[in-house]
Amino acid sequence: MKALVKTRPEPGLELVEVPMPTVRPTDVLIKVRRTGICGTDLHIANWDGWAQANITTPLIVGHELCGDIVEVGAAVEDLEVGMFVSVEGHYVCGRCRACLAGNRHLCIKTRGIGVQIDGAFAEYIAVPAGNVWVHRHDVDPDVAAIFDPFGNAVHTALQFNCLGEDVLVSGAGPIGIMAALVAKHAGARHVVITDLSDERLALATSLGIDTTINVARERVKDVWDHLNLREGFDIGLEMSGAGPALREMIANMTHGGKIAMLGIPSQEISLDLAKVVFSMLTIRGVYGREIFETWYAMSVLLQSGLDISGVITDRFSHTEHEAAFAAAASGGSGKVVMSWDDWPPPPPATRGRRHERPPA
What we know:
By secondary structure, the protein is of the alpha/beta class. It has helices at 39-46, 49-54, 97-100, 141-145, 147-157, 174-185, 198-206, 224-227, 243-251, 273-278, 293-303, 321-328; strands spanning 2-6, 14-17, 27-36, 59-60, 64-72, 84-87, 90-91, 111-112, 124-128, 132-134, 166-170, 190-195, 211-214, 233-238, 253-261, 282-285, 312-317, 335-339.
């Protein structure tokens, strides 16, 4: 089968022929339809310092996927060939304190596909049956492919009750935009999103986020009067990992405000902790998704009318992986999805974000 592999400890990925994965008794084999490109994949492709410290080559990369079950292990009883599924990419030990308490997302021994384990950028992948999420209602395959980052957004946005609250989101990347959409869908009064990219802020506006701020030109405090805010924001969703964004968020929170922090800083951040203390702020770190409580929430949100499909701005065949990764690294795109189906790519003049969606 074909797979996109980090073959050597150096920049770049190669589309090469690899053996079919082994299907253990507790596994299922999935024919991959679509995959999404994540920031982690960009780190691995670029072979930056993080990748050099955490990745062992050779490795099939990728962890955002959907596909169809084509083989079921002998010990699997509740899954069937033909089911359309997405995959929880975090493998947990099942025996640590958190796992035994039912908090698998807190497993201290978590391993990830496409990072510690061969991943999803391939024609087929074998995964434990316990990591499979079955789509039991119609879901666009492109959307099903990004359930992993959608889960990050939902997990973050629902850390605190948004109903009737004023929500500030820092970072208008795909996950930040999805988190803003979730907060709005969950009944927030005002949702404001900030970024440095006009293109990404324009995407957020086009998807229904009413107030956007380019913090290179405008301060968050400048929108208070427009939104009739008197004391600050009730909830903050920090999705950027940027020190200035977190400091600006803290400065604009009301007393007793709550911040959910998903963004991963690339270096230490200095904070005015006196502001945190005197304003009695809560700052909660967020990682991954609750397995599988967040997945239930994702499916229900889609069934209740939330539309995240617009956050996908670029579609490519897996044979165009270099162009796909370039789009994902551009800083102005939303989610980038690669197809592993046998659909013919469009002519060169229509590639990238102008792709017609391939057939489901």
